[in-house]
Amino acid sequence: MLTTDRVAGGALVLLALFTLWESRRLPLGSLRQPGPAGAPVVLALVLLGLGAVLVLTGRRATALAGVGFPEWRHAVAILAVCAFAALALERLGYRATVTLALACLLGVVERKGIVFTAVFSLALALASFLLFDTLLRVPLPRGPLGL
Amino acid sequence: MAETLGNLAVGFGVALSPPVLFYAFVGCVVGTLVGVLPGVGPLAGISLLLPATFGLDATRAIVMLAGIYYGAMYGGSTTSILMRIPGEAASVMTCIDGYAMARKGRAGAALAIAAVGSYVAGTVSVVALMLLAPPLAAFALRFGPPEYFALLTLGLLVLAYMSSGSMLKALAMAALGLLLGMIGIDQMTGYFRFAYGIVELGDGIGVVPVAVGLFGLAEILATAGQPTPPEIVKPRLRELLPSRQEWRESAWPIGRGTVLGFLIGIVPGSAHIIASFVSYAVERKLAKRPEEFGRGAVAGVAGPESANNSATSGAFVPMLALGVPSGPIPAVMLAALMVHGVSPGPLLVTQQPELFWGFIASMYVGNVVLLILNLPLVGVFVNLLRVPYPILYPSILVFCILGVYAVNSSVVDIWIMLVMGALGYVLRKLDFETAPIVLGVVLAPMLEMALRQSLAMSDGRYAIFVARPISGVLLAGAGALVLLGLRPLVTRTLDWRARLALAAKGEEHP
After folding, report:
1. In terms of C-beta distances under 8 Å and separation of at least 24 residues, what long-range contacts does A22-28 make, across chains too?
2. Which of B66, B166, B362, B390 is the most exposed, having the fewest neighbouring CB atoms within 10 Å of its CB?
3. Are B179 and A44 within 8 A, CB to CB?
4. Rounded to a whole number, what is the distance in Å from the CA of B234 to chain A's nearest CA?
């Protein structure tokens, strides 16, 4: 039966195997003088062991089917907005990016009214820029035309 | 003792200067807001606001961040008592009896007891911190790489052992964190490890995007689609004074919570969370009428609230004296100090006494500020919770993005936050604790460097770790913890960690 511990343990085993595979590009060194791959290989082996034990002993954990993801649509939308912010921040500038990100979350995901969405998004983007960039002197990116 | 008092006087000279006082005040206010808001715990709060301290000198920055830390610890109790929503994890136990008191019309008294308990615990534990940290730092001057390696190993194992739930899972998360901490340039050879051509990863994965992702963004992902919170019980100002009977019932629990919290705080792990659980269990065991617990017992509020605030100061002992974080929050504080060019450790007390003693003194001041600030303004803070969550979470998300970007002016950090947020969300669903990942990321470079330096010292002989008395004792302690952790697998009985995990889920009281 697929349980939470077995799924997580399996994922950790895969990650450990991937790390071991990737470590082959780096000098391993010796036990007496470990190279740059020494510590990652040891840790990957530890992770492999722990993941395998989780898979083997995870029979009594919660069944995966019992784990609900009712908020997955919101979660995906929020992650998409974060990805957009990462892509746009240094291209469009802080103020434009944050205004668009907020407008998307409030207007599209939360279905707030268009006027409220526009005013709130713009106000928060400008206010946070003023607070951090202007007052606290934390440099934030500017987009085309210095916006 | 006279020297300590002299140093403390220097510290108060720093802490009571108007600019430092101002930043302590700002930290306490912001911390309380952070604690009140569901979804922004002290760890994410400190991480997000780290860039705001870049323009400050080190003393003001650390004073403000510490204010945020203990302000958040207090703020978390407000939502626990008035809404049965723990603002942060350490307030889970306060929810039980605090909310029950509120339902009986004693919300004001519960808030006052929590505030006074936090104040007493905060102040007494700072005295203990002040007395303990300098001698510990002097002792730590004997530490070389083998001792640091043993100490860090012990710290990670204690963290795994003290985590509520499975030690195996906590160890797996710590190993995952250590592995993530391997990304970047190898400090001894200059090789790029697992960076895949991304230059920004050369310095490794930063603790801030990891902490904000795992604790801030993951919380938003898990709660954004859920229905709006329940109705708030709003106390009136005149109801804030507890009765004589309530004061009497809270006095001993506050004292016990203070001592317990400080001792647990020194030990690595999610100290303030464990401290509040243990304090609740102790108070229930000692109560003349244990059946009142869960129905509004005063001791059920006074004990855990004192314990979690006391643990906050305890957690600073290893951070300031040894330069070793005992949990994810001190780890971020450590990173903050390093950003400002300060290296915490045994030499901090002697080399930067103004910073060290100013910080200690600011904690006394901060506790007074919190006491004065929180009770009269509780209504103002609670009003924040009236902002609907569908509006609140996009705003918090903006500050997550801003805070993470501003640390290094790098969008790579936003991607790291995104990945960590998704990972944290899934791990929460699968019932895994994420705190060991943060600590692993911070400790990985220190641990690896200590190991390789030790081997260089001993010409590759591992016996150096057991031949030196301090590291030998520390590693023996680590071995004992592993054996203790394995015991439930052999005896097949629930140990205290499993019982805590059940209590956290509301299935059974500890």
Report:
1. A22/B194, A26/B191, A26/B193, A27/B189, A27/B191
2. B390
3. yes
4. 27
For residue B225, being part of any structural domain is answered with yes
* Residue B125 contacts residue B448 (beta carbons within 8 Å): no
Structural domain span for residue A131: 72-146
| Measured distance CA(B114)–CA(B75) in Å, rounded | 10
Question: Are A85 and A41 in a shared domain?
Answer: no
Domain limit, last residue, from A39, A66, A93? A66
CA distance to partner chain B, nearest, from residue A40 (Å): 6
Flag whether residue B165 sits within 8 Å of chain A, measured between CB atoms: no
Bridge partner residues of A142 (DSSP): A93
Residue B232 pLDDT more than 60?
no
Looking at the structure of chain B, the number of domains it has is 1
How many other C-beta atoms are found inside a 10 Å radius of the C-beta of residue B241?
12
Window 445-484 of B: residues touching A by CB (8 A cutoff) are 448, 451-452, 455-456, 459-461
Which helix (H) or strand (E) segment holds residue B41: the answer is none
Average pLDDT along chain B: 82
pLDDT tens track for B402-427:
888 888 889 999 999 999 999 999 99
Q: A147 to chain B, minimum CA–CA distance in Å?
A: 16
Judge if A62 and A98 occupy the same domain.
no
Q: How far apart are CA A56 and CA B137, in angstroms?
A: 44
Task: Enter the tokens of residue B408.
Answer: 């290094």
- B510 domain residue, yes or no: no
| Chain B nearest-CA residue for A125 | B398
CA contacts within 13 A on the Cβ side of B139: 12
A86 in reach of chain B (CB within 8 A): yes
- Render pLDDT for A94-141 as a digit per residue (tens, 0 to 9): 999 999 999 999 999 999 999 999 999 999 999 999 988 887 777 889
Highest mean pLDDT among B223-232, B441-450, B483-492: B441-450
- Indicate the number of domains in chain A: 2
ipTM: 0.95
| Spatial CA neighbour of B500 closest among B167, B173, B166, B277 | B277
> Is residue B54 in some structural domain?
yes
| DSSP at B243 | P
Residue A10 burial by Cβ neighbours in a 10 Å radius (0-12, 13-18, 19+): middle
Q: What angle do the packed helices B244-266 and B299-314 form, to 10 degrees?
A: 30
Please identify, among A66, A87, A120, the residue that sits at the C-terminal boundary of a domain.
A66
Q: Across B132-141, B202-211, B217-226, which has the greatest mean pLDDT?
A: B202-211
- Partners of residue B391 in chain A, C-beta under 8 Å: 106, 110, 112, 120
Residues A97, A142 share a domain? yes
For the ranges A18-22, B36-40, B335-339, B443-447, which has the lowest average pLDDT?
A: B36-40
Q: How far is CA B85 from the centre of its chain?
A: 19
User: Is residue B185 in some structural domain?
Assistant: yes
| SS3 assignment, position B85 | coil
3-class DSSP string for B150-192: HHHHHHHHHHHHHCCCCHHHHHHHHHHHHHHCCCEECCCCCCE
- How far apart CA B344 and CA A77 sit, in angstroms, is 41
Same domain, A105 and A51: no
**Enclosing domain of residue B420:** 2-504
Residues of B in contact with A31 (CB under 8 A): 460
The three-class DSSP label of residue A3 is: strand
Residues 383-422 of B with CB under 8 A from A: 390-391, 393-395, 397-399, 401-402, 405-406, 409, 411, 414-415, 417-418, 421-422
| SS3 assignment, position A104 | helix
